[in-house]
């Protein structure tokens, strides 16, 4: 078996920011969980609210493709750290390294752990890749009231609201909780919810790291 001792991974962020702390949040999550990983984070331009509906996703996809092409040289893999996996299919066609999406990665890990997966996310619809992969294991989508964009969650007002909807999901019979917005990863909410809820809580960014390990290992084999 090929062992991944060190790998350089590019993270594509869909929230435009010039704040290094915000930009590097997902990289810190991944490097803490996977010490072999070295991350480089870049964000697409002109989307300070990120992706929160079909229109903003459509605007983001060509930017994601261009950024992926710019970043790919010299990296072992790329990850699109957005639960909607915007541009994932298209990026895989234009680069020659593994590419994973946080949404599909999180759904795969959640489906492996339970049969009634509750997805927590922004106001709106459940990200399509997540619902597709979960299939019959999808319990319901729980939107966090008043949280329309990732910036709303990151404002500091979203933490208790996320806890409240997670408790409702438990009452409805959830046996796994999956974040349907990667801003929840940036907020570091998974440990808190595991204590509050007593069920597996899947962070899609960490799940993407697990998929990256397998993708890079397979690529090098």
UniProtKB/TrEMBL annotation:
It comes from the Bacteria. InterPro entries: Asp/Glu/hydantoin_racemase (IPR015942), Asp/Glu_race (IPR001920). GO terms for molecular function: amino-acid racemase activity. This is Asp/Glu/hydantoin racemase. It comes from Moorella mulderi DSM 14980.
């Amino acid at each position: 078996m090929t062992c991944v001792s060190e790998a350089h991974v590019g993270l594509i962020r869909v929230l435009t920011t010039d704040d290094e702390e915000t930009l590097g949040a997902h990289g810190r999550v991944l490097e803490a969980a996977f010490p072999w990983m070295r991350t480089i984070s870049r964000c697409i331009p002109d989307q300070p609210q990120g992706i929160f509906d079909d229109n903003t996703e459509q605007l983001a996809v060509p930017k994601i493709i261009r950024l992926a092409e710019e970043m790919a040289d010299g990296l072992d893999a790329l990850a699109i750290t957005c639960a909607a996996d915007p541009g994932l299919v298209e990026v895989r066609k234009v680069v020659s390294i593994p590419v994973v999406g946080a949404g599909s990665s999180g759904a795969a890990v959640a489906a492996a752990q339970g049969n009634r997966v509750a997805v927590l996310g922004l106001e709106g619809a459940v990200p399509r890749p997540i619902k597709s992969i979960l299939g019959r294991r999808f319990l319901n989508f729980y939107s966090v009231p008043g949280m329309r964009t990732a910036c709303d969650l990151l404002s500091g007002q979203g933490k208790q609201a996320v806890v409240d909807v997670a408790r409702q999901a438990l009452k409805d019979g959830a046996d796994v909780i999956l974040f349907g917005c990667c801003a929840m990863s940036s907020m570091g909410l998974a440990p808190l919810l595991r204590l509050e809820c007593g069920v597996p809580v899947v962070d899609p960014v960490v799940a993407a790291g697990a998929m990256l390990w397998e993708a890079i290992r397979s690529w090098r084999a």
